[in-house]
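Please, structure for the following, as tokens.
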Amino acid sequence: MKKLLGLLLVGSMVLAASPASADLFSMEIDGQGTYTRLGNVEGTVGGNQVSTDVSGFGVGGRAMLEILIIRAVFDYQHLFPGADFIHCGLGVGTTFDSIPIVNPYISATVGLIALDAEARMFPGGSGSETAVDNALGFQGRAGGGLDFPFLDGWLAAGLGADVGVHYLTGRWGYDFSVNLHFGLRI
């Protein structure tokens, strides 16, 4: 009787256990509302070189493809009143999905940054003349946030923040962004 009871207990535990799995591939596509600041950016306004922080509220999108632990990230943001920047990089990150309802995450990437900015983003600038035209540089950033998954984890809404450094327009600077995002999780 004890053997039968022991076998039933072990058998029920084995049948109730969830199967082990490892995520080899994941993909995220998000729409974002953001506030971003890119520090120490140099542009040409009225024939003069001017250095300032390019900052503002904006909208954008982010795509992330992860294979094993390596992430490829493409992030585009349009800042109001007139700047566009792109970050394209490789990095690492993880999501802690063991907490019910919310998934905290952390990530870090290193890659290229591109910036276009209108003169009105700089002191003394006005109109839609270009102050920074297709500036390319390097950026390293790290961040984290919270995802609130729903529809069996296929969709998520959340908030996040990133801090980093960049080399752009011949200068080193810092950057900071906070975003609200909504998107697809595969």
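The first strand starts at residue 25 and ends at 45. The longest helix spans residues 2-16.
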